[in-house]
Amino acid sequence: MRESHEPEPGGPERWPVAGGPPFDPERFRCEGRVVVDWIADYWASLPTHRVLADVEPGEIAGRLPAAAPECPEPLAAVLGDLERIIVPGLTHWQHPGFFAYFPANASGPSILGELLSAGLGIQGMLWTTSPAATELEGIVVDWLRQLLGLPDRFRLGGEGGGMIQDSASSGLLCCLVAARERSAAVGPGQGVVYASADAHSSAVKGAKIAGFPAAAIRRIDTDGSGRLRPDLLEAAIRDDTAAGRVPCFVVATVGTTARGAIDPVAAIGTIARRYGAWLHVDAAWAGTAAICPEYRALVVEGAELADSWGTNPHKSMLVNFDCHCLWIASRHALGGALSTKPEYLRTAAGDSGAVVDYSDWQVSLGRRFRALKLWMVLRMIGAETLRQRVRDQVAWTAEFAALVALDPAFEILSPPSLALVTFALRAGDEATAELLTRVNRTGSVFLSHARVGGRHAIRLAVGGTLTSRADVLGAWGVIAAAAADPDPASKERGPGAGER
Amino acid sequence: MRESHEPEPGGPERWPVAGGPPFDPERFRCEGRVVVDWIADYWASLPTHRVLADVEPGEIAGRLPAAAPECPEPLAAVLGDLERIIVPGLTHWQHPGFFAYFPANASGPSILGELLSAGLGIQGMLWTTSPAATELEGIVVDWLRQLLGLPDRFRLGGEGGGMIQDSASSGLLCCLVAARERSAAVGPGQGVVYASADAHSSAVKGAKIAGFPAAAIRRIDTDGSGRLRPDLLEAAIRDDTAAGRVPCFVVATVGTTARGAIDPVAAIGTIARRYGAWLHVDAAWAGTAAICPEYRALVVEGAELADSWGTNPHKSMLVNFDCHCLWIASRHALGGALSTKPEYLRTAAGDSGAVVDYSDWQVSLGRRFRALKLWMVLRMIGAETLRQRVRDQVAWTAEFAALVALDPAFEILSPPSLALVTFALRAGDEATAELLTRVNRTGSVFLSHARVGGRHAIRLAVGGTLTSRADVLGAWGVIAAAAADPDPASKERGPGAGER
């Protein structure tokens, strides 16, 4: 640990005063500009950073004081430590060479929306606690519903509605609880949850949290393209029904994490409806691609059978994390399961039924004003630019995949699904894993891995704010060069931040 | 609905360009300054706003376009609508006259921390996905642990540890799931949850989400001071144990919402331990007062018996929502219950056990870099200023209560607990409710209500960033004047944002 909070050595402190009132408008103007400039400089410098942090466990903590300071320090001291200690220990998700996991891209308008939300500092837990926060959220989420071509059953003002949650995991959990309550009449502990073997881990996590025992969670096998097999789903449901269990919740995935597979939602929805189960569509990553008419049929097919449908503008749609949009067909099913209104949270408006108190639709009571950032992205970037970005990213991914396919050392494990492709070395899993480690250690790109068809796959997910065609094709250059020139010394490192 | 996105009438657009790349550093510098200035102006203007919004359901939505724009709009257009349409529909939580619910106060350093978090745009879901985010969080949460005087069992690097969650509700849910799993060996559906009749609604909500049937949730009666009665808790646990049920989770509240009561945590903890139940301390509001040595014994008493202990710097400690700090005694109990690591989330560092992957300790996978704002508040405001604020707020609340007690028309329903006091008109519940409605409609203050000792109580919770002694005493002036001069016309309004 560092001994103490060291004074900032040298350099002009652009706002030298420490202490003072916790919010002073003139000081905020001054310090706010410094931080805005810092962020602008950070983004301008992003290509010069290593994408994946290269630090050992405990290395960053060891550079920080073990106890808080007693006296106030100036902003310059904090920004100095941010620059010297924190930034070198970050994995830079906004770097143009970030192709790992799924993107969590941000944008100028979105960052400003988050800033405004923090600056206003209001709570949207009840309609009354800031009516405009609830109403703007309803409106902008409905704007997105229309852009995606989602059905009227999720429309603002009808039986259903939309909202913003922090994440797809939380959204799924809330819907699962509503489904569990809807089916509860038939006896506790008998409900069953279904999701494909490739569904996101949040399905299993949500089921665990909601109290479903492991034996009540069915992972349905996928076809050769990674899509849930409806015939196996129906067989599993029949078996459960015959055994006195109750089909409760079916997750259909639109864009699996491993390979971007899109489950046959309409077929799944027909089965779910036949057996009275809740259909939840997890379109966390692929969902926003439906803003392009050419991908809409693929992405929103079957949504008219869904009880809930969610997607993440915080993945590829330039809204910074967190912004999960969730639509539900029955606000009563969700609110009925989650609402717990003690006297101190009751209001005339809430009691009247004329408004939505969004805290009744989520785990937490408190709510940030997240609608601002979605509003600002939709208005300041505009739908047409958002569409063009999807088209570009899909095209670049296809170009990348074509280059991989031409290299005899490599094979495509799953063809491009929108802006995601997976591939491997023909030499086998160990060689592929070792190659990925070396590629990520170059610091110029970061890709992650998955199991695809039983193989260790390298995933390329395109969607970064700054990522261009040249970055995507450049990533292939880095990978091909690493494959052509192995460096066995790299195998000797310990458990640092390098990907396994 | 407005017909379309109208152009901004008149006025110089300080950044006239619309469209362009989603992040352009030079444009961000320019637009960022405009937004920073907007926030500074907003805070400077706060006393001129009505605290509680005075709008009807649907009024704000009706002023917004029904569909998103196709083409990009300039920042000035958005800020114009924010000013004209949104701000008039907000309830201003940072207003010096906000005394409702509990405070959700913000500060310059905290807003800048949130801005930096959005600007960096990294994900702290796994240690590897940004090591410095995980390590800074561990460090600053441990700084706070030391400032509060919480025991070593929650220390960073031991068997336990600390983290930031979005809210006390989420933190409680995660601990409840861990407790449920810890006791699961004895059979599903047999676990019981205990909390006082005055515990926060999040206890019941968490239990519902985690699948506890209503019959497995015991609300234990309180004593005349609103504190959970340990004798009744033990009797309930004995009854349950005798009936073959398993005491699973006990919530002790340090600072109830209705009246700020502080449960006897040590006595409760001794009982919980005797019967093998998990003790969770919900110190969401009162917890941060322990930074003052004179309140520490009151607030952290019994913490050494707790399996989990949580408080909200986002209430009174100048960290803008969301920032719930949660400490746990056993990281294995929490991680074991919530971890669901598919192949694509496995990393060398995570597998080594040398690091914490914080997503294993929470509902969601994704994580914002919340540690920055707590770090900036602790460094730029400093512990001593934070302590002085608590002392001032407690003193002002006592002064306010003394004035209430001197007025023969009023009575104190619960004496000040830290910076919260409740009171009522002697004329009865209806008169009290009607008075509160009129007080809030003045627009100069906003107080909320609760049930205290079976009575309709007005609550005054002090803690706003800008709230001064004059504002607190001024609130009494508004209340006393309204009580002295009733205006029956105010009874005729519909279900607007006015408090019931």
Q: What this model shows, in words?
A:
The structure is a homodimer of 500-residue chains. Chain A has 500 residues and is an alpha/beta fold. Chain A has three domains: 25-87, dopa decarboxylase, N-terminal domain; 112-380, Type I PLP-dependent aspartate aminotransferase-like (Major domain) (Aspartate Aminotransferase, domain 2), CATH 3.40.640; 384-492, Aspartate Aminotransferase, domain 1 (Alpha-Beta Complex), CATH 3.90.1150. The first copy, chain A, is built from 16 helices and eleven strands. The first copy, chain A, has helices at residues 25-45, 75-86, 108-120, 131-148, 168-182, 201-209, 230-242, 265-274, 293-300, 313-316, 331-338, 348-352, 371-380, 383-406, 429-441, 469-484, and strands at residues 161-165, 191-196, 217-220, 246-253, 278-282, 308-311, 324-328, 410-417, 420-425, 448-452, 455-461. In chain A, the strands form two sheets. Chain A has a seven-stranded mixed sheet, sandwiched between helices. In chain A, strands 8-9-11-10 form a four-stranded antiparallel sheet. In chain A, a hairpin with a 2-residue loop joins strand 8 (410-417) and strand 9. In chain A, helix 5 (168-182) crosses helix 11 (331-338). Chain A is globular. Residues 6-16 and 490-495 of chain A have low confidence and may be disordered. At the A-B interface, helix 1, helix 2, helix 3, helix 4 and helix 5 of A face helix 1, helix 2, helix 3, helix 4 and helix 5 of B.
